[in-house]
């Protein structure tokens, strides 16, 4: 395993920072002016527009960082991605001869507001965690048996790109139709079973052509980076609407992502294999690389007024059954063109024990088993005022690769009609 790369930015050399020189994640920030692209290093942010204007960054004949999103870099392709990473390491590594020129371009993270790091073209969410799928089957159908197709294909649905928001954006409890099992007719009102789903999000940085499939290895090369992703879910709305076409309003009201894009290159040393296949996959889903990453994940909950947040779940990205590359390959296999800025949600990441479950639906077993937070409050689903946080890091020798927290606070439902 690789070791910590030393930087002249002192805060980047701490084992506690999520943003060492090994990471260099991409985000968008502002300090009393227009948002602009930045790279996190320790507790600082390198202003990429200023670095480009100063001639420190030259990866294209045209400006790349004069816009507040990273799609322009994605469009340049993997060679440009690699070139930028190499250049950033040169500028920020310990002993860099260019420190005096770079240092004035750093901004304190504590002084900055963070914004959406990229323009989301499309959003697709998968159902690719085996333990979660088995748990949901046991809860909803009384059996952990998987759907007949589950061990053969990554199951997914097309979500709403317009509802993807940056960490810290409050989420209103959604209104919708819901029907109790013993009720003759559905009713309308705020969701009473509001939930989270702990996921990773893969960002497509290279497009594929309409009508042309891609291999798993090609898909792997197309992935620009990863974020933490919270697929907020209204279980009662979802349960009434999802047959026969799947999730709709129960999922469309909000999806939160962490603020920093951790590049695939930064995670390369943390690759991990997908689990042993119970059913042999068809040849088109075979790839030559390990497709998952060893990333520790946490879910925290903090009721309004509570003194601290409680860790309610801990698991690892290696619990997934299908990799992002396999999901992307299957997404395009029928000729669906993939776009720069497409976002793929992994599906809920749950492990085999209750402490590793990635949704409240599982943690409370559909509300039948309330759990108690460290501060004494009891929960089955999310209540108004609750703040949910996803946290994740790949841990190396003396350093960690972090994403920044993915945070969302639940506000009351909007009064209907307004």
**Quaternary organisation:** single chain
Backbone CA Rg = 21 Å
What average pLDDT do the residues reach?
Answer: 96
Give the amount of beta strand, in percent: 25-35%
Q: How would you characterize the largest beta sheet?
A: 8 strands, mixed
Spatial gap, N to C terminus: 57 Å
Here the CATH topology of the largest domain equals Fumarylacetoacetate hydrolase, domain 2
Name of the CATH first level of the largest domain: Alpha Beta
Q: What's the number of helices?
A: 10
CATH architecture of the largest domain: Alpha-Beta Complex
Q: CATH homologous superfamily name of the largest domain?
A: Fumarylacetoacetase-like, C-terminal domain
Number of domains: 2
- The 3D shape can be described as globular
Structural class: alpha+beta
Low-confidence stretches: none
EC number: 3.7.1.2
Keywords: Calcium, Hydrolase, Magnesium, Metal-binding, Phenylalanine catabolism, Tyrosine catabolism
Pathway: Amino-acid degradation; L-phenylalanine degradation; acetoacetate and fumarate from L-phenylalanine: step 6/6
Pfam families: FAA_hydrolase, FAA_hydrolase_N
What does this structure look like?
Its cofactor is Mg(2+); Ca(2+). Pathway: Amino-acid degradation; L-phenylalanine degradation; acetoacetate and fumarate from L-phenylalanine: step 6/6. Substrate binds at residues 127, 141, 238, 242, 348. The chain is an alpha+beta fold. The chain folds into 2 domains: 10-115, SH3 type barrels, CATH 2.30.30; 122-411, Fumarylacetoacetase-like, C-terminal domain (Fumarylacetoacetate hydrolase, domain 2), CATH 3.90.850. Helices cover 18% and strands 26% of the residues. It has helices at 48-53, 71-76, 78-92, 99-102, 130-141, 216-222, 235-241, 249-252, 324-332, 360-363, and strands at residues 26-30, 36-41, 44-47, 106-108, 113-115, 123-126, 156-158, 164-166, 171-172, 175-178, 187-190, 194-195, 198-204, 223-231, 233-234, 255-257, 262-263, 271-272, 292-293, 296-302, 310-316, 343-345, 371-372, 378-379, 387-395, 400-402, 406-411. Strands 6, 7, 8, 13, 14, 16, 17 and 22 form an 8-stranded mixed β-sheet that branches. Strands 9, 20, 21, 25, 26 and 27 form a 6-stranded mixed β-sheet that branches. A hairpin with a 2-residue loop joins strand 2 (36-41) and strand 3 (44-47). Helix 6 packs across helix 9 (324-332). The longest helix is centred in the first third of the chain and has 15 residues, at 78-92. The radius of gyration is 21 Å and the shape is globular. The N and C termini lie far apart (57 Å). The model has no long low-confidence stretch (mean pLDDT 96).
């Amino acid at each position: 395993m690789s070791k910590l790369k030393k930087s002249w930015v002192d805060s980047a050399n701490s084992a506690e920072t999520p943003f060492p020189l090994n990471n260099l994640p991409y985000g968008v920030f502002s300090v009393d002016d227009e948002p602009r692209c930045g790279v996190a290093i320790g507790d600082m942010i390198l202003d990429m527009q200023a670095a480009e204007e100063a001639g420190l960054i030259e990866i294209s004949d045209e400006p790349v960082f004069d816009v507040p999103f990273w799609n322009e870099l994605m469009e340049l392709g993997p060679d440009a991605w690699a070139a930028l990473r190499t250049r950033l390491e040169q500028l920020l590594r310990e002993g860099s001869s260019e420190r005096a020129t770079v240092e004035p371009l750093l901004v304190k993270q504590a002084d900055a507001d963070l914004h959406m790091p990229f323009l989301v073209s499309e959003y697709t969410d998968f159902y690719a965690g085996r333990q979660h799928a088995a748990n949901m089957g046991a809860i909803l159908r009384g059996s952990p048996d998987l759907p007949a197709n589950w061990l053969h294909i990554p199951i997914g649905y097309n979500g709403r790109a317009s509802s993807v928001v940056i960490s810290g954006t409050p989420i209103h409890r959604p209104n919708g139709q819901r029907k109790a099992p013993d009720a003759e007719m559905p009713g309308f009102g705020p969701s009473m079973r509001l939930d989270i789903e702990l996921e990773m999000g893969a960002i497509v940085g290279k497009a594929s052509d309409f009508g042309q499939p891609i291999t798993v290895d090609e898909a792997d090369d197309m992935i620009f980076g990863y974020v933490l992703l919270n697929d907020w879910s209204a279980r009662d709305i979802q349960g009434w609407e999802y047959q026969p076409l799947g999730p709709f309003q129960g999922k469309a009201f909000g999806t939160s992502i962490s603020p920093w894009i951790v590049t695939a290159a930064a995670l390369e040393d943390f690759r991990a294999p997908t689990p042993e296949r119970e059913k042999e996959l068809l040849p088109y889903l075979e790839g030559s690389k390990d497709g998952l990453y060893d990333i520790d994940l946490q879910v925290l909950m903090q009721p309004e007024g509570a003194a601290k947040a409680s860790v309610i779940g801990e698991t690892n990205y290696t619990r997934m059954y299908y990799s992002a590359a396999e999901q992307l390959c299957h997404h395009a296999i029928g000729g669906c063109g993939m776009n720069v800025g497409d976002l793929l949600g992994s599906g809920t990441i749950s492990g085999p024990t209750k402490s590793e479950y990635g949704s409240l639906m599982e943690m409370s077993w559909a509300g039948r088993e309330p759990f108690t937070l460290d501060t004494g409050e009891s929960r089955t689903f999310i209540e108004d005022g609750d703040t949910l946080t996803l946290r994740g890091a790949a841990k190396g020798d003396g350093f960690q690769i972090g994403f920044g927290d993915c945070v969302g606070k639940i506000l009351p439902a909007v009064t209907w009609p307004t």
